[in-house]
Amino acid sequence: MRVNTVLVLVAATLQVTSCHLPHTLAHECNKTIRSEEEGEGVVESPGYPGLYPTPATCTYTFLGASPHHKVQLAFTYFSLREPPLHLVAHERCLHTDTLAMYNLVNNYTRQEIDTFCGTSVPLPIMSSTPGLQLVFTAKPATSLPETSLLIHNGFSARFKFVTNLGMKSGQQTAPGVCQFLYNSTNAANGTVYSPNPEGYYPQDTTCHYLFYGRPGEVVRLTFKYFDVEGVMPCNEATDSDYLEFSNFPSADRKIPAYCGNVAPSIIQSDGTFFRLTFRSNNKFSGTGFATDYQFLDMSYQPYTIKKVIVMTAGGSGGYS
Ligand SMILES: *[C@@H]1O[C@H](CO)[C@@H](O)[C@H](O)[C@H]1NC(C)=O
Ligand SMILES: *[C@@H]1O[C@H](CO)[C@@H](O)[C@H](O)[C@H]1NC(C)=O
Ligand SMILES: *[C@@H]1O[C@H](CO)[C@@H](O)[C@H](O)[C@H]1NC(C)=O
Ligand SMILES: *[C@@H]1O[C@H](CO)[C@@H](O)[C@H](O)[C@H]1NC(C)=O
């Protein structure tokens, strides 16, 4: 009883604070952030860390000055009023407060990335264009059932305009271009990630990872993580995002393409050069992949069969 009273008092105090908000909302709520003025920072719901006002519609527009920019957004807090409990997953966000995210094509045309609601903190997202828009919509206070959480403090996220797609390894060949070199002379082993590592990869993105071994070396990739949206045979015809491997600077049809949830376990090049290509389309995004790479000197192992090894942990993708 005592605990409940304290909670109600806290909520009441926050409510009083948020009552003053509507006067300043017009200035605070809709925001345009330009990379020239603020390359990185924090974006928050109105009144944060207090309760957000209801109803409310706030649009946050991020505009990168360079065509090479992408916007990376990582949430540190997310708590919107819970949707009615009986709804199925794809309907949950239709009847409650939401945060919708869009790529801005040519600065103004919206292309939806995803819409979030409830209290799970979304994974980091990245725009596929230099522009990103967030639309926060809070329904009127009375339109939600009593099962909705009383406490709704909104969201807080760090944003950053990047030209390297958030990559942590490899040498980018040009700003804004998703092409990274892995040179054995610089690092004999390491880890390669999909763009926006540990978050959802951006839509409509093609990345090439080029491996250059020293004479006599091959490269071996050992996958640690794999979540690439798609179904067999993992190509454009099946609306799939996919991962493709090649022993040449161009495509190599003898190695199957991969998508879905089952990673290729180990992939090895025939020779010193190897190319890994990741491609996402403009539909749903997964959380991508992480693979360790290791250059191996094969010049003293004449009996090793220098051939692509494709081993699969289970019914993964591939051309049948
Ligand atoms: C913010 O912009 C949206 C349209 O994007 C508009 O409907 C809303 O009224 C604006 N809110 C304020 C407080 O100006
Ligand atoms: C998009 O916005 C940026 C930054 O405000 C501007 O430099 C650029 O010209 C705009 N591009 C288009 C196509 O409107
Ligand atoms: C790899 O690095 C070495 C030493 O820095 C350099 O000589 C070589 O040209 C590099 N190879 C590629 C393909 O960039
Ligand atoms: C990875 O490379 C580092 C040096 O960059 C080396 O110290 C380490 O032994 C290598 N690890 C493996 C497993 O080869």
Ordered list of secondary-structure elements with their pairings:
Blueprint: H1 2-19, H2 21-28, E1 31-34, E2 40-44, E3 56-63, E4 70-79, E5 98-105, E6 109-116, E7 125-126, E8 131-138, E9 154-162, E10 171-172, E11 179-183, E12 189-193, E13 206-212, E14 217-227, E15 242-246, E16 264-268, E17 273-279, E18 288-297, E19 310-312
Parallel strand pairs: 1-3, 11-13
Antiparallel strand pairs: 2-9, 3-8, 4-7, 4-9, 5-6, 5-8, 10-11, 12-18, 13-17, 14-16, 14-18, 15-17, 16-19
Order of helices and strands: HHEEEEEEEEEEEEEEEEEEE
User: Which hetero compounds are present in the coordinates?
Assistant: 2-acetamido-2-deoxy-beta-D-glucopyranose
Mean pLDDT: 85
**What is the CATH C level class of the largest domain, in words?**
Mainly Beta
Number of domains: 2
Estimate the strand proportion. 35-45%
Alpha carbon gyration radius = 23 Å
Helix content: under 10%
What order do the strands of the largest sheet run in, or round the barrel if closed?
1-3-8-5-6
Tell me what you see in this structure.
The chain is mostly beta strands. It folds into two domains: 39-162, Jelly Rolls, CATH 2.60.120.290; 171-312, Spermadhesin, CUB domain (Jelly Rolls, Sandwich). It has two helices and 19 strands. The protein has helices at 2-19, 21-28, and strands at 31-34, 40-44, 56-63, 70-79, 98-105, 109-116, 125-126, 131-138, 154-162, 171-172, 179-183, 189-193, 206-212, 217-227, 242-246, 264-268, 273-279, 288-297, 310-312. It has a five-stranded mixed beta sheet with strand order 1-3-8-5-6, with no helix packed on it. A five-stranded mixed beta sheet has the order 10-11-13-17-15, with no helix packed on it. Strand 10 (171-172) and strand 11 (179-183) form a beta hairpin. It is elongated, with a radius of gyration of 23 Å. The N and C termini lie far apart (64 Å). The model is unreliable at 1-27 and 313-320 (pLDDT under 50). The structure holds 2-acetamido-2-deoxy-beta-D-glucopyranose (4 copies). The site of one 2-acetamido-2-deoxy-beta-D-glucopyranose has 5 residues, from loops.
